[in-house]
Specification:
The protein has 335 residues and is α/β, with parallel strands linked by helices. Among the domains are: 42 residues; 99 residues, no CATH class; 60 residues. The protein is built from 7 helices and 7 strands, in the order H-E-E-E-E-E-E-E-H-H-H-H-H-H. Strands 1-4-3-2-6-5-7 form a 7-stranded mixed barrel. Helix 5 packs across helix 6. About 1% of the residues have low confidence.
């Protein structure tokens, strides 16, 4: 074949250029679609997680007695407005440590109330924070700084109520069984029914006898009540007539009581004085006290008494000798 004419070559070159432009347009559309899809995906994730790009988040450490069915990612409400999430849950001794991821603009103090609350009808949990203008600010978790723990609370929710309901139903079942046993032992027992009829019959008999006695002794009872009214009236008249004397007796009794109280007080004072004197004697104060505590006083007194006895004996002997001498020394008178 010979060389194609110039017109055919021109058409072939134009077709190649159109094919390249179309391919470039397709690549551009595909790239733009991918970028738009990524943007929509990121925006959707941010919207679903309610993440705020402009706000800075900080962490706070809260100690709860328990957290129930709470999970990581549960919302944190500040006075009812969502301002963060529950970032981490872990055991802290016998309690539970919860890390709250909050908006930095929320200022927590040591007077706030933080509690695990119920936020849904199906047992969904969340963290509720009630702000307080009082108290000292609580620092958030920062690298290199000591962690300050905030005391949290646990509010009973639907899941706990359902658990308690199971316990209540078990106790109700036990109560129903006990009541059923009691009914079978009473109403269902023919012996009990017969005894019950006997008791009711005896009560009816007692009622009839009592009614007869009252009807038979009605005049006597009326007379007794009349006499009682008369006695009461006479007693009242007696008290009214002698009320001045009774008042005088009461007044004298009050005076006597006052004097008796004064006498008792004087006696108590005298007893205190005697006890003080005895205490001084026991402590060795004063003449009697010194004599009381001096152990050698008795020995010395005994020695003195012995000396006195000896002296008296010697005096008696000397006096006897003196009388003898005087008797023999006298001159006899001449008759």
């Amino acid at each position: 074949m010979g060389r194609p004419p110039p017109v055919c070559a021109w058409l072939d070159s134009n077709a190649g250029k159109d094919l390249g432009v179309r391919k470039l347009n397709v690549d551009f559309i595909v790239g733009a679609s991918i970028l738009i899809a990524l943007f929509v995906l990121i925006a959707g994730v941010i919207w679903l997680k309610e993440v705020s790009i402009a706000n800075t988040m900080v962490n706070y450490a809260v100690i709860f007695p328990e957290v129930g069915t709470s999970q990581v990612g549960d919302p944190v409400y500040v006075n009812g407005v969502k301002k963060g999430t529950l970032r981490r849950i872990e055991l802290h001794g016998t309690e539970v440590l919860g890390i709250l991821n909050l908006d930095r603009r929320i200022n927590l103090t040591d007077s706030v109330r933080i509690a695990v609350v119920n936020v849904g009808l199906l047992g969904e949990r969340g963290i509720g924070i009630t702000l307080s203008p009082q108290g000292s600010p609580v620092p958030h978790i920062a690298p290199g700084a000591d962690t300050v723990f905030i005391r949290g609370h646990f509010d009973t929710g639907i899941s706990e109520a359902m658990g308690m309901l199971g316990t209540v139903l078990a106790e109700v079942e036990t109560l129903v069984v006990a009541v059923s046993q009691i009914l079978h032992a009473t109403i269902g027992d023919t012996t009990f029914i017969s005894q019950f009829h006997d008791i009711v019959g005896k009560l009816d008999t007692i009622t009839i006898v009592t009614d007869r006695l009252l009807k038979r002794n009605e005049p006597v009872l009326n007379a007794a009540f009349a006499d009682l009214r008369i006695v009461s009236r006479d007693l009242k008249d007696l008290l009214d007539r002698n009320s001045p004397g009774l008042d005088s007796i009461v007044a004298d009794g009050q005076i006597l009581m006052t004097k008796g109280i004064a006498l008792v007080e004087h006696a108590e004072a005298l007893i205190d004085d005697v006890q003080a004197i005895l205490k001084n004697i026991e402590d060795g104060k004063g003449t009697l006290g010194r004599l009381y505590v001096d152990d050698t006083f008795y020995d010395e007194l005994k020695a003195v008494m012995a000396s006195v006895d000896t002296l008296v004996g010697e005096v008696r002997q000397d006096a006897l000798r003196l009388r003898v001498r005087l008797g023999f020394g006298k001159k006899r008178k001449q008759p």
